[in-house]
Amino acid sequence: MTQGNADSAAAGPDALLKIERAGKVLTVGLNRPAKRNALNDGIIHAIGDCFATLPDDIGAVVIHGIGDHFSSGLDLSELTDHDATGGLLHSQMWHRVFDRIQYSRVPVIAALKGAVIGGGLELACAAHIRVAEPSTYFALPEGQRGIFVGGGGSVRLPRLIGVARMMDMMLTGRVYPATEGASYGFAQYLTDESGSLTKSLELAARIASNAPLTNFAVLQALPMIAEANPQAGLLMESLMATVAQSDKEAKRRIREFLEHKTAKVKPKS
Fold it and tell me: What domains sit in the chain, N to C, each tagged with a CATH number?
């Protein structure tokens, strides 16, 4: 996506996404506040197009919700009757779009507030870092709606919170508030009220300043290593470390550290 494309995608109050950039960070705002940013096919396709055409100089992306909520999930008012084939293809369309987020060449941060429900939670799970503020709440009401998750939630969410916890949510309709949800792995950061977007932008700017090859390795290699046979994982780690360390940018950064041009890692006081 060129800057012109981003501007056109964000143009007008009725645009499904509000896309802006600040330096190397692209912000993608879900823009259906009257519907609590419920996800219909149009907004899913718009997200897919956005991630398929990221500008080359973007180093991180922040997804957030316009208004009081991140996303209340699948827009049931637009749900049409599907036969088995149609339902399968519809679910796989969501999978392709959310895969573009998970396997993006740059890190993606989800700034969460209000409802993070159903498909909205599935979208958040596709991001690499999740930042929640106190208004955030997490739920999977599919069991009460007579449907099942279809946006990759059954694959991604158990890796964050465990199968038993997700099963409980779907069977009982349990809702997790922000503080409890963060302690169980729904989010890695919990901010003050109205602070999720600010914190996400801060993290994104820091991440975008990393060496691009290191970011790429963390996104693409680390998940595969974690799930691989231990010996295969160790070999993959060695190969990735070798590639990363041989990069000119890595050599420059190591040289600057050795010459005391960069600060040592210390805990914040």
Answer: 3-208 (3.90.226.10), 212-258 (1.10.12.10)
